[in-house]
């Protein structure tokens, strides 16, 4: 379903004479990630149907650009947060923080930047649409200045005015970092992890 929607949208945009198409993809396009730092050149691991659909849709957009669409951009998004965000770890975690629940997590000392604040994404989209670059581009997005995972979760509590309640379990696969060089070269201006969390908690009210 996702792939067919993308196919129709890309074809319709090209037929309508669009200057650019931006496709919001996902880090799921990498499948199972087994490297410490993910770049756009990281090969995919095992893909679930959602990740495969995202990756295949990226290929459809690239093909439309090759056939004549002036500009196309695929953005592989990590956990995207802001007012109303859901279905990612940080959004679920903030809901539990506000409910006074204990958070269970692993790898407290691993560095983390797998977050994008919706306002930063909107600014990037507005700048790209106003002055799209020719050809096809693919980029990851993330925040700058990674924090340790225990600091990330601690900030959710402190920014919410809640007493910290985190239980770290042993084991588990450490989170990966996301490289930002490609995104910055395309005009993205990332917020820090701390600033992204501050904006997220503020928006959540």
Give a summary of the structure in a few sentences.
The protein has 205 residues and is an alpha/beta fold. The protein is 40% helix and 19% strand.
Structural commentary:
By secondary structure, the protein is of the alpha/beta class. Helices cover 40% and strands 19% of the residues. The protein is built from seven helices and eleven strands. The chain has helices spanning 2-15, 49-66, 89-98, 118-130, 149-159, 181-185, 193-204; strands at residues 21-26, 37-38, 71-77, 79-81, 103-105, 111-112, 115-117, 135-140, 147-148, 166-168, 177-178. A three-stranded parallel β-sheet has the order 1-3-8, with helices on one face. A two-stranded parallel sheet has the order 2-11. Strands 4-7 form a two-stranded parallel sheet. It is elongated and about 55 Å long.
């Amino acid at each position: 379903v996702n792939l067919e929607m993308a196919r129709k949208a890309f074809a319709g945009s090209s037929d309508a004479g669009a200057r650019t198409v931006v496709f919001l993809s996902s880090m799921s396009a990498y499948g199972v990630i087994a490297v410490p730092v993910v770049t756009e050149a990281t090969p995919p691991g095992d893909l679930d149907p959602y990740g495969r659909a995202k990756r295949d849709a990226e290929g459809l957009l690239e093909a439309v650009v090759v056939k004549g669409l002036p500009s196309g951009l695929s953005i592989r998004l990590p956990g995207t947060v802001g007012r109303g965000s859901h279905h990612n770890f940080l959004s679920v975690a903030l809901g539990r923080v506000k409910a006074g629940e204990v958070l269970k997590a692993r790898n407290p000392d691993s560095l983390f930047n797998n977050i994008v604040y919706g306002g930063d994404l909107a600014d990037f989209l507005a700048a790209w649409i106003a002055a799209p670059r020719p050809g096809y581009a693919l980029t990851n997005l993330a925040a700058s200045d990674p924090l340790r995972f225990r600091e990330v979760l601690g900030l959710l509590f402190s920014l919410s005015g809640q007493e910290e309640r985190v239980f770290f379990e042993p084991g588990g696969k450490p989170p990966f970092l996301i490289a930002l060089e490609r995104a910055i070269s395309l005009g993205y201006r990332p917020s820090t992890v701390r600033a992204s969390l501050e904006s997220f908690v503020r928006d959540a009210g």
